[in-house]
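Below is how a single chain appears once it has passed through the pipeline. First comes the sequence as given, then the structure the pipeline wrote out for it. We keep one example in the README because the format questions we get most often are answered faster by looking than by reading.
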Amino acid sequence: MAERLDMNSLSKFDGSNYNQWRFQMNCALRAKGLYEIVHGTELKPENNNETQKAWSKNDATAMFILTSALDYAQITLIENCESSHQIIDKLDSIYLQRSESSKMIAHERFHQYRMKDSDSVAQHIANVENLAKKLKDIGETVSDAAIMTKIISTLPQKFLNFRQAWLSVSEDRQTLTNLTSRLVDEEANLSLVEQMETAFTVSSGKNQSAKSKRSTKQSEPSSSGSSKQKSVDQNQEVKQNIKCYQCGKRGHIARFCRNKPKHKSSHRDKEYTSFNVEFPGDVNMENMWIMDSGASAHMLYRAELFSNMSAVSEGTTVVIGNNVSLPVIGKGDIEIEKKIKGEWYKSVITNVLFVPDLRRNLFSEAVATKKGWSIMKEGKKAEILHGSKLIASAILDDNYNYRMLFRNISVHQAQQVTENSLKAWHDRLGHVNSTRVREMIKSGVISGITLSDEDEILCESCLYGKQYRFHHASREVREEEVGERVFSDVCGPIATESSGGAIKIS
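Resulting structure:
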C-alpha cells in the first residue's frame, strides 16, 4: 500500500508560478502512481468492471490531490471537469500560453539573458536551463547545443580561456553534464587564483615596506620572519591545489601552461578582417542585415530584392522596439550571398516580411533557433551553427549591432545574362585598345574572363571621339577691277523703267 501523502506540504496554486506548481504536482502524482492517469497515457478500461473501478478510484484520488492544491478562485475554473485529465488540460490551456506573442517574449528572454556578477556558475546554468524549459513548455524546440552555447557565450571575461579550451573538446564529450562539471571546477580554480594573487599582493606590500625600513634600521632584527614564512607557505599550498584546465596538471593555470598550443591565425580570422575592409562602417543601411534577438521574423523594406512575394492578411502589423506598429505588405523569399570561410555562397532567406517603413533589414535570431540552429557569440564574432556546420556569420560593428556577412542580390541582377565579348570588355575597361584587352586577358593581368569572341571590333564611340576637323585659314580678298564685286539687295519691282523699257527687279 502506498504511503499517505501529506497534503499540507503542497503549496496551493493561486494563479502565479504555474510551472513551479505543475512540477510539484507531477512529483506528487508520480509518488502516488497516478501520473499516467492525469496526463492521459493510461486510459479508462472498457470491459473489465474490477479494473474500471480501480481506475476510477485512482482518478478520483488524483482529482482530490489536484483540487487540494488549488485555492477557491482556481477551483471555480475547473468545477465542470469530470476527470483529473480534464482538470490538468483546463489549467494548461489557461496558464501555459502558447500564443505567438508569448513565444516571442520567451525567445527574447532566453537570448537577452546575461550572467550577473553575483551569480555562481551553478546558478547561471540553472537560470539558462529554466529559460530553455519555458521555451519547451510552449512547444518550442531548444537543443542541448543551443543551451550550452548560451551558457558559454554569456560567461564573464575571466572565463575566456575556458571558452577557448571547450572548443577543443571532442564533440562526443561536449555534453551539458560535462560542461557543468568543468565549469564548476574552473570556477573553483579561478577562486584559488584570486586568493593566491591577493595573498601575493599583501606579501609584496610587506616586502616593500620592509625594504624601506631596512635603510634606516639596518641593525634592528626582523620580528616578522615567522609571519612572512607563514604567508609563503599559504601561497605555496594554494598554488599546489590549482589545476590547469589545459593539461590537467596541478600547480599552475591554463594561462601560464607551457603545453598551450601555439596560436595560429585561422582562416576564420582572415574572413572577419576582410569583411571589415569590404564593408566599411559608413555602408548604406539598405544593403545591411542586422541580427536581432527581439525580431519574431526576418524583415526587409526593399521590394525589388524579393524573388517572389505573396499577400498577407489585411491589417497585419509588426511592433518595433519603441512600440510603434508598422504595416506588413507581403511575405516572400530573398536571394543573397553569404560569406563562409572566405568564400561567397548563394543562399535564400525564406518567409521574409516586407515592411516598407522599417528602414533596416532584420535577421531574426528567434527564427534561426526555431529551426534548431544555435547561435554562438564570442567577442566581436557571432556564428549560426547547425550542429557543427557553419550556416552564417556576423560581426559586431561600432554601434554594437551584429552585422550579417550577407550581400543582397537584386532580382534583375540575378536574372541578367553576362556578356563576355571583346566589345563588352572594351567598353567596361574605359575603351582600352582591343588588342591591349586581349593581351591583358592572355597574360593573366585580368583574371576570371573567357572571351566569347576575339574578332576585331569597330567601336563607334571611339571613332567619334578620335575625329577632328581640318583648319581653314582666313584670307583677305581685294578687287582689282571696277564691277568685279557687286552688292545687291532684294527689292522691286522699281517703278522707273530703264532706257530699254525694262523694270528692274533685284
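Residues 7-95 form one domain.

See the next section for the split statistics.
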